[in-house]
Design goal:
The structure holds two protein chains of two kinds.
Chain A lengths: L8 E10 L6 E11 L4 E5 L6 H8 L7 E6 L2 E5 L2 E2 L4 H8 E4 L11 H11 L4 H14 L15 H13 L5 E5 L7 H17 L3 E5 L11 E6 L2 E7 H4 L1
Parallel strand pairs in A: 3-9, 3-10, 7-8, 8-9
Antiparallel strand pairs in A: 1-2, 1-4, 4-5, 5-6, 10-11
Helix pairs in contact in A: 3-4, 3-5, 4-5, 5-6
Chain B lengths: L2 H8 L1 H37 L5 E5 L12 E2 L2 H6 L4 E16 L2 E10 L12 E2 L8 E5 L9 E4 L2 E9 L10 E5 H9 L3 H9 L9 E2 L1 E6 L5 H9 L4 E5 H12 L1 H31 L2 H9 L4 H30 L11 H28 L9
Parallel strand pairs in B: 4-9, 6-8
Antiparallel strand pairs in B: 1-11, 1-12, 2-10, 3-4, 3-11, 5-8, 6-9, 7-8
Helix pairs in contact in B: 1-10, 2-7, 2-8, 2-10, 8-11, 10-11
The chains are: A alpha/beta, B alpha+beta.
Chain lengths: ~240, ~375
């Protein structure tokens, strides 16, 4: 387990290349960073800079070529090799995902979309249902608990998606363009929610974004270019 | 949480419509199997009707169904006296067309001796033939009813009994009349033609000719041994019941049987491809959801379970619809559709296997999808 001072995410010289020889593309080059509990950080960079690749590596869905990674105090990657075989379980237990287009399961209502993650982790149906409703209340969207995703507004759907990401109390939340599909007002609400989650649950939130209107909502911003971690700034500097 | 059920419930109309479409297709497959079975059963019905062990026919023929056979009617007495024969009867078979209620009626006329083997296997309504002339027992599919009168040749017959499922290999419904009436129908000429024959001096020939003499054997008698005895007479052939049925299925209806069998196989193959495509398409439409499930940590068995359960539900509901459809309309087919429980079960098993194989394609696609594809726009 981590102490308050320990980072929840620690990357040490993570590299990832695709192809070999003349076709080789270096998507990440020796990226090292740390994200601490309660922090909301952004990965910024032009298209092809490697930010989505980095998010995929942190999410344990892409094998890096080299480097090491610690998640929630556990060394899960060493010298480019996974130390855990059950990466799905690792994701289920430690990582929550928030998507650009919320990616709610269209044939499940709002409550079941959240409860599903809990049941996948082993919770019984009643417990999962109760906790799902609790999360929807926490995110102030419980009045839409029985609505199907197609009937939810963009903001409501993103809040349900955040509830789903929080279902198993993960300490690391990865967000891929979480506000890209929202207007300014709803984007601000979603970022406030993420901030609240980070502080209250002592979680680390890492978001890939191009959305300039929310830059000031991040504690730190990591800029990537051509696979290099080019700079690390705090939001005030950027704003 | 059963994801397959939730998905089906969410798209219930579309799923049911797909099931109905598949059900119609499987119904056609079942109908073809039923027609195939019906063809074989129909071919055997007339041969099984007398309930005999031996068929005595003209020498060097495989009569009376596969080839023409004409033998003297009085051979019946000679056959009856052979050791091991319990009883024997003479039979004639011929096809005639008659007028009934303003329409043409094609009939398979069986002439037999009412007190001997060769008559209808059961009377479902009315009675058997009791008078020596002008009474008949008809198959229900003729459309004749008790008391109806029908002209056959130069005589008018009354329907006194009804039987069922008695048709020849061509599907023509059978009627049973007495042997003398049948011989008269077969050999009596119209008056002008009779006068011509009389003038030629040929009218004196006997008309006591039959197509076959059938024999029931005593319980301890061997059909092959008795047949061998009959063959020794040289001018006769003897066919056991088993051999007769083989001739009918392998010779008389063989081409039609193979034709329908091949068509049924093709239909089954087409159904398999369609089922596979439906299930594959259903899976492909959910790839992004599947990627999301994989990304959030759903184990493979959850995803595989969803696809396989949906495939099986589709197959079995479709099969159920198809089976119900055919069972409810099979009696309206012009020819018999025979659906034995083992045929239905066999197709059910094939559908089960096809659904499993088809879901394998979907499962393969689902397991290969990169969870990272859930990210991004």
């Amino acid at each position: 387990m981590t102490t308050l001072a320990d980072p929840l995410v620690r990357l040490d010289r993570i590299s990832k290349h695709f192809g070999e020889g003349e076709t080789r593309v270096d998507a990440l080059r020796a990226v090292s960073l740390e994200v601490h509990p309660g922090e909301v950080v952004a990965l910024l960079g032009p298209s092809g800079s490697g930010k989505t690749t980095l998010l995929n590596v942190i999410g344990c869905i892409l094998d890096p070529s080299s480097g090491s990674m610690e998640l929630d105090g556990e060394l899960v990657l060493k010298d480019g090799a996974w130390l855990r075989r059950d990466l799905k379980r690792l994701r289920l237990d430690k990582i929550g995902f928030i998507f650009q287009f919320h990616n709610l399961i269209p044939f499940l209502d709002a409550t079941d979309n959240v409860a599903l993650v809990l049941q996948l982790a082993g919770a019984d149906a009643t417990t999962a249902h109760e906790r799902a409703i609790g999360l929807l209340k926490y995110l102030e969207v419980d009045h839409r608990r029985q609505a199907m995703p197609a009937k939810l507004s963009g903001g409501e759907a993103q809040r349900v998606a955040i509830a789903r990401a929080l279902a198993n109390k993960p300490r690391i939340i990865l967000a891929d363009e979480p506000t890209a599909a929202l207007d300014s007002k709803r984007a601000a609400i979603v970022m406030d929610l993420l901030r609240r989650v980070a502080v209250e649950q002592q979680a680390a939130i890492i978001a890939v974004t191009h959305d300039e209107k929310i830059f000031d909502r991040f504690d730190r911003i990591f800029s990537l270019r051509d696979g290099w971690l080019e700079s690390e700034t705090n939001s005030l500097q950027t704003a | 949480m059963n994801l397959a059920y939730r998905d089906i419930r969410h798209n219930l109309g579309r799923f049911l419509l797909t099931c109905v479409g598949l059900g119609l297709l499987l119904g056609v497959v079942l109908a073809m199997i039923g027609i195939y079975r019906g063809l074989v059963v129909d071919a055997l019905t007339i041969a099984r009707a007398p309930g005999v062990d031996l068929w005595v026919v003209e020498a060097n023929t495989r009569g009376p169904f596969a080839e023409a056979s004409r033998i003297p009617g009085d051979l019946r007495e000679a056959v009856a006296r052979i050791a091991g024969v319990a009883s024997a009867g003479s039979i004639t078979y011929q096809t005639v067309e008659s007028e009934h209620r303003g329409g043409k009626l094609r009939l398979y006329v069986i002439g037999y001796e009412p007190t001997r083997p060769g008559g209808p296997p059961e009377i479902t309504e009315g009675r058997g033939i009791a008078r020596s002339h002008y009474e008949l027992v008809a198959d229900r599919s003729t459309g004749l009813t008790l008391g109806d009168r029908i002209q056959l040749g130069r005589s008018t017959f009354s329907v006194v009994g009804l039987t069922r499922y008695q048709v020849n290999s061509g599907g023509d419904p059978a009627i049973y009349i007495t042997l003398p009436d049948a011989q008269k129908l077969q050999f009596d000429l119209a008056p002008p033609a009779a006068r011509v024959q009389l003038a030629r001096g040929t009218s004196g020939s006997s008309r006591d000719t039959v197509n076959t003499v059938v024999a029931r054997l005593q319980p301890n008698a061997s059909p092959d041994a008795v047949a061998e005895t009959v063959r020794r007479w040289k001018h006769l052939a003897a066919i056991t019941q088993q051999a007769q049925e083989l001739i009918l299925t392998r010779s008389l209806v063989d081409r039609a049987r193979r034709q329908i069998g091949l068509f049924t196989s093709l239909l089954l193959a087409v159904s398999a491809v369609i089922i596979a495509l439906i299930i594959y398409t259903m899976t492909m439409e959910k790839l992004r959801q599947i990627a999301t499930l994989k990304l959030i940590g759903a184990p493979d068995r959850t995803i595989v379970g969803m696809i396989v359960q949906q495939a099986l539900a589709l197959g079995f509901i479709g099969f159920g619809i198809g089976a119900m459809l055919i069972v409810s309309i099979k009696d309206y087919f012009p020819r018999r559709v025979v659906l034995e429980p083992d045929n239905v079960l066999a197709l059910g098993f094939v559908v089960f296997a096809v659904c499993l194989a088809a879901s394998g394609l979907g499962v393969r696609a689902a397991l290969r999808i990169d969870p990272a594809s859930a990210l991004g726009g």
